[in-house]
Amino acid sequence: MKGKLTTNMGNVYIDNNVIAKCAGTAAVECFGIVGMAMVSMKDGLVKLVKREYISKGVNVTVDENNDITIDFHVIVAYGVSISAVADNLISNVKYKVEEFTGLKVCKINIFVEGVRVID
Asked: Which of 47, 52, 60 is nearest to 16 (CA)?
């Protein structure tokens, strides 16, 4: 299902990939996030996704009430507090996606798939 905004002139439908790209961009701006991760179902390997494919590590669902749920698969920097990074990611993404789409983000799930040492 797509996000739907109803205006006095008609309806605006927002594709889930657009929301995922917005959410992914907001997420990688957060301190402690190295990038999005893509998990291979075939062999269970996790790999860091290049910036142009940022929405691959993000899954967006929109329910019948137009509430957005976002799942992130991230790689975090070694030595940072995962809970602090998660709190920052949640508040930053929630604000930016709601401003961008006009829809409500009701749930954000974060799956830490790996840790990287940053030089």
From this structure: 60
Interatomic CA distance for residues 113 and 70, integer angstroms: 16
- Contacts with 58 (C-beta within 8 Å, 6 or more apart), sequence order: 20, 21, 23, 24, 27, 36, 70, 71, 72, 73
pLDDT tens sequence across 51-91: 777 888 899 999 989 999 999 999 999 999 999 999 999 99
Domains identified in the chain and CATH numbers: 3-116 (3.30.70)
pTM, rounded to two decimals:
0.86
- Sequence-distant (≥ 6) Cβ neighbours of residue 38 within 8 angstroms: 46, 47, 49, 53, 56, 57, 73
Question: What is the separation, in whole angstroms, between the first and last Cα of the chain?
Answer: 41
CA–CA separation, 108 vs 119, rounded Å? 29
Structure tokens, 30:
């957060």
Cβ(53)–Cβ(92) below 8 Å: no
Helices (H) and strands (E) in the chain, counts: 2, 7
| Amino acid letter, residue 103 | L
